[in-house]
Amino acid sequence: MKPSKLIYALCIPAVMAVSCKKSFLDRPALDGTTLSNYYNTASEVRGLTATLYGIPWSGYDNRAMDCIGDVMAGNSYTGDGNADDAPFKNLTLTSGSARLAEAWKVFYKIGGWSSEYIKALEQKKASGTSASFIDPAIAECHFMRATVYFYITRIWGHVPIVTDPAGVALSGNFKIPRYLKGDVLKFVIEELKIAEKDLPESDVPGRLTKYAAKAMMAKVYLYMKDYDNARVKAKEVIDSKKYTLLDNYGSLFNSSANNNSTESIFAIQKKLATNPWGTGSQKQPDRGPGNLQTTEASMWELYAPTIDMRDAYESGDLRKSGSIMTHGWSHPAWKPKTGTADYDNFMANGYKYDTLQPAGGAGGQKNDTRSNIAKYVVGPGASYGGEPVLGMNTGINTMLLRYSDVLLIYAEAILAGAASTSNSDALAAFNEVRERAGLQPKSAITNDDILHERRVEFAFEGDYWFDIKRQGYVKAKALIQAQNRGTMEFSKYITPAYAKDDDMDLPVPATEALANPALLEAPVPYY
């Protein structure tokens, strides 16, 4: 049986020569240089690991991330005619899902690249190259490998661990078992401990530090319900004073000028470019309203907020306007034009989101939920009062871990599964997030308070499905069946057929199971 394309993808970048003169996102040049005559300087080594921050993530962060993290979770709506995405809304996924196959390939590719880089850099260090810049680079790879395996096990549960992809490819034995999800999470923690040890205290914006490793560890420990360790790691990040919340929540997501801000702990790095594919962010066209499309900016609103998500915000929550466009939402600096008199006159004083005006030439916006996602929409282009965009590409980073997450992890770790807490440290962290949103602080918090806060804080950031899933199948089912996943005209409710926690694990892509039948067998211990 032939191996899947994934196995080959894992082995591509064994050794690469990289220029890092312009930024750490510069593309590697595959010129066949060897370990003996390259990776002799910090710049060359950092150029190698820079390749893990950007383009390899593109098959996940543009659509699979939306489907898994938000459509399936009831935050994002997509039409039933959308064959690739509607099954996530209706929870009718099969192993033939293109989005699941894309995500699987991305994660194992990044894991494979990281593993090959670790092996190559260890060889380089053994040959006498300075550990002062080799060890931090190896630590970056361990962080990346940990992060993708955290995503893999949260999505699929029991999964393979591949730390020597080249060896697997050369052996010809592609029957790799699934390992118990508890063991995969243990592996993730071990990887993050290595990263924490050897990553620097600080680095240029966008690069990983040991506090990024601590923050990710806190998130993993929370998922494992290891509240003591989650609390300790989150507290270390808070006490470091390395991160702060931006005053304006919406500014995190409406301009690339705030890439790698003091709130961003780990982000997929983007550059405004159309080539190579995946260099720029492609979230804007999938989210932006159709009446904001211009000659510079594509908008086709593949995903929109659900009715349930629209109604989830408390009155006065400033995060709503930073996350969702509804009737009356505006952006005075954006002045799109189409050449149609009615539209151009309507938008003359800035973009207005209006569901009362007729759609089309008059400038109205009437989709199924009368709303659009505002996050990662940076506007109509430089000629129309926005920042530069190139069709479906923008330059805004995709944040995977923010400081507000650490604050809420800390509060939840102190709660530690109890009915409620009024612990002053938990409240201080929790209320710091609420107060930035313009809301009154709480004097006691419950798990439901934290879950709600996480939903509105991280809406459309690909995380809420994992928050639902870790509640266990009974509560997850109740949360899902209470959500209106329909339209303004027709409500829609679904009831998942969950009978155990493993039922929430998503199906392994059919192409992978065909290449590796062990993926359909019972999981085995890794340790």
From TrEMBL:
Its main location: membrane. It is found in: Cell outer membrane. Belongs to the SusD family. Keywords: Cell outer membrane, Membrane, Signal. The lineage of its organism: Bacteria, Pseudomonadati, Bacteroidota, Chitinophagia, Chitinophagales. InterPro entries: SusD-like_N, SusD_RagB_dom, TPR-like_helical_dom_sf. Residues 97-222 form the SusD-like N-terminal domain. Residues 262-522 form the RagB/SusD domain. This is RagB/SusD family nutrient uptake outer membrane protein. Pfam families: SusD-like_3, SusD_RagB.
